[in-house]
Amino acid sequence: MLGQSSRARVAALLICASAPASAQTIGTLTVAEGSVVLVRGAATYTATPGVAVHNGDMLAVDPKGQAQIEFQDGAILNLASGCRAYLLAAQGAGGEPGVALQSGWAKFTRAKAAKGPAYRYVMPLARLSTPGATGVLRMGNDSNDLFVETGASRIVELSRGGTPGSGRDLKGGEFIVRRDGQPLSIAPRPSADFVKAMPAYFRDDLAAFLPRLRNRSADPKREHDATYAEVEPWLKASPPLRRNLVERFQGRAKDPQFRAKLLENLAAHPEWDPVLHPKEEKEDGAPKAEKAEKAQ
After folding, report:
1. CA 89 – CA 251 distance, rounded (Å)
2. What residue spans of 132-242 are helical by DSSP H?
3. What is 26-213's CATH topology?
4. Residue 133 backbone phi and psi in degrees, to 5
5. Backbone φ, ψ for residue 225 (5° rounding)
């Protein structure tokens, strides 16, 4: 059996081995109005236009600000009104790359000339897959709203635990409401409330700013180790989204404040229990404490 130190070294090697995939550049932040917080690895950065974004990055925009990501495959995503995004790698060969979204508003589109796999937009209660549609999303605590402006897409209901349910194909002009505990509601046009609350600039097509930044790259400014509050929405997200976060933020559990919040909210992310309450390492089938007691 491996000792504790040996297991730690093996875990570190596995994390390093997976780093190139998770650090793959997939796009560029082309707009940043207000504060744009970027969590990369287990650290928090301030992001500005020209910063490359990677698989695994978590972004949060100011409630009165916006951020726009232009992906290498032509997809464009604008985050507004306090939206949070978690950039997801494609799952397996030929899988769909995507973005998990929580709170606030987002608008997505794709450059007409772009070609690539379908994109998936994962909301707390629904998942949308599309090769090139344009649409607007609103993520609330108990309701997810979607207006498909143009293009074909498919939506699938998700439970709070991330389990997929029934789905259906969508076409341009349709408005979908998915409320917790209720089936999809489809209407031929967006509701008056949705239109009134939507960021005004979402009424227009998303402009592409990447050509202006071709020769302008920027490095994000490191601020501090990520706090629990900065990653809390993802630590409490559905199990499929939380899958790799224990390994990613395990080192932060050594920080007293981060650890205290993990313990306080353990019911929301029980996979942290082995980290917070590790079982005593055994030697020859007996706990260390027992062997030490017998030796006295």
Report:
1. 23
2. 192-197, 228-235, 239-242
3. Jelly Rolls (2.60.120)
4. -75, 165
5. -65, 145
* pLDDT category of residue 262 using cuts at 50, 70 and 90: very high
Question: Side by side, which strands form the sheet with 36-40?
Answer: 164-170, 153-158, 126-130, 119-122, 98-102, 84-88, 58-61, 36-40, 43-46, 221-225
Q: 119-122 and 98-102: which strand pairing?
A: parallel
CB 134, CB 167: distance < 8 Å: no
pLDDT > 90 fraction of the chain, expressed in percent and rounded: 71
What is the phi/psi pair of residue 76, to 5°?
Answer: -125, 135
Locate CATH 2.60.120.1440 in the chain: 26-213
- How many Å apart are CA 260 and CA 266, to the nearest integer? 10
Task: Give the global pTM.
Answer: 0.85
Task: Please give the backbone phi and psi of residue 173, each rounded to the nearest 5 degrees, phi first.
Answer: 100, -15
Q: Bridge partners of 98? A: 88, 120
Q: Return the higher-pLDDT residue of 13 and 71.
A: 71
Q: Residues of 163-201 as b/e, b for ≥16 C-beta within 10 angstroms?
A: eeeebeebeeebbbbbeeeeebeeeeebeeebeeebbee
Query: Which sign does the torsion angle of CA 248, 254, 256, 260 carry?
Result: positive
Of 211 and 206, more confident: 206
Residue from 248, 252, 264, 260 nearest 227 by CA = 252
Mean pLDDT of 128-135: 94
Average pLDDT over residues 51-78: 95
The answer to which of 60-64, 182-186, 217-221, 285-289 has the lowest mean pLDDT is 285-289
Alpha-carbon span 56 to 20, nearest angstrom: 11
